[in-house]
Design brief:
Elements (H helix, E strand, L loop, with lengths): L7 H7 L8 E3 L5 E15 L10 E6 L4 E3 L2 H4 L10 E7 L2 E6 L4 E6 L5 E6 H5 L7 E7 L2 E6 L3 E6 L5 E6 L4 E7 L2 E6 L8 E6 L5 E4 L7 E7 L2 E6 L2 E3 L6 E3 L3 E6 L2 E7 L2 E5 L2 E6 L6 E6 L8 E4 L8 E7 L6 E8 L5 E2 L3 E7 L5 E9 L1 E14 L2
Antiparallel strand pairs: 1-2, 2-3, 2-32, 3-4, 5-6, 6-7, 7-8, 9-10, 10-11, 11-12, 13-14, 14-15, 15-16, 17-18, 18-21, 19-20, 21-22, 23-24, 24-25, 25-26, 27-28, 28-29, 28-30, 30-31
């Protein structure tokens, strides 16, 4: 099956979110424009599958400045979100949370936080194809998510039926849309043979592309038509004798080759700027890489946060306010990161000044924002 609508509007507003504005001026009516607004954030907590600690969702309300733990369970009769949630987003009046270990995508009313639908990905796609949903984007009335079964699924957000499924590469992770295409990062489960897939939504065709310099791709960023890949180290040999190879970096995609832009392990993009954490397991470094003025190499400058975190686990930026959120594990009694207890997130101004700190659940791994569009009437 094919999807012929333009994909551009989808990516703009609600996923990795460059701001999306439309201006209107009718000679017979008032002039107005649309503005992206945000009134809160949600933290996806993966839990700890090895200790049978289910994941959860932390909700942060900007107006009250309160973080509510296990907000999904609290509004669904105590029901768990599931094992190892990994990603989420707000699209329209709903939110979607991808739950890897439970093979589900939870569809939630963003106002009441009550479940609308639980999409069982192994039933939707098949037992093998739908295993372990990973990352999600949305637009044109659809959600698109990857699965470790090697597929991208397109699901209608009204009837929640499968519209199309696309066979991509080995262990796909992140994805991003541009025009009528989706670019998918196929990680190969860190074995060193990762590549990308390009889905043409108009024709339904999928182009596999092996890229020199890409080994373990995790995320895809697109700015002004240029494609950037967050590529991680990979491992040769079998555990416990495996050997780490390569480097973790943002890489610029040019045909079948990728060139390094800057070191990175975690990254998020807003308005052509990448907000980056590198070397998180030692002495973490924070930076901003501006891709607008120099798209091939970027211009990287330090991100001077007024107050750091103990063990960074992710970074994201509110698309409406530009505020920066950095996830972290707490320090355990042994002096190392505690993967079994609650973590926290620190909120900074767009200039890096510390604002607030909030507790999260166990294993904070992703942030998404309660964004929407507000109509502003011009004077």
């Amino acid at each position: 099956m094919t999807m012929k609508k333009s994909f551009l509007a989808m990516v703009a507003l609600l996923v990795s979110a460059p701001l999306f504005f439309t201006s209107c001026n009718d000679d017979n009516g008032p002039s107005f424009h649309y503005e992206v607004v945000s009134d809160g954030a949600f933290i996806v907590n993966s839990g700890n599958m090895y200790s049978s600690i289910d994941g959860s969702l932390t909700g942060i309300n900007y107006a009250s400045n309160v973080a509510v733990q296990k907000v999904f369970a609290a509004n669904n009769g105590g029901q768990s979100l599931g094992s190892t949630p990994n990603d989420g987003l707000v699209y329209g009046d709903k939110m979607y949370v991808v739950v890897d270990g439970s093979n589900t995508v939870e569809v939630i009313n963003k106002k009441t936080m009550q479940r609308i639908k639980q999409i069982k990905t192994t039933e939707l796609l098949g037992a093998a194809e739908g295993k372990s949903p990973r990352h999600i984007i949305a637009g044109n009335g659809h959600i698109f998510f990857t699965t470790y079964g090697g597929y991208v699924a397109a699901v209608d957000t009204v009837n929640f039926k499968l519209t199309a499924k696309y066979k991509v590469g080995s262990y796909p992770e992140g994805l991003a849309g541009y025009a009528s295409s989706i670019v998918v990062a196929n990680s190969d489960y860190a074995k060193g043979h990762g590549n990308i897939s390009i889905i043409n939504l108009g024709t339904g065709e999928v182009e596999p592309r092996n890229v020199e310099g890409i080994n373990n791709p995790q995320k895809v960023f697109i700015n002004n038509g240029n494609v950037y890949i967050l590529d991680w180290v990979y491992y040769e040999g079998e555990y416990p004798n495996s050997v780490e190879k390569g480097e973790s970096a943002i890489k610029y995609l040019a045909g079948n080759k990728a060139t390094k832009v800057t070191d990175a392990y975690y990254a998020s993009m807003l308005n052509g700027k990448l907000y980056i954490i590198s070397n998180p397991y030692a002495v973490a470094k924070y930076s901003v890489c501006d891709l607008n003025s120099n798209p091939y190499q970027g211009t990287t400058t330090p991100l001077n946060l007024s107050e750091g975190v103990f063990s960074p686990a992710g970074i994201d930026v509110d698309p409406a306010t530009g505020e920066i959120f950095v996830l972290s594990y707490n320090q355990g009694e042994n002096g190392y990161a505690d993967y079994y207890s609650n973590g926290y997130v620190k909120r900074y101004s767009k200039n890096g000044s510390y604002m607030y700190s909030y507790d999260t659940g166990v294993g904070p791994c992703a942030v998404f924002f309660n964004v929407g569009v507000k109509t502003i009437f011009d004077n």
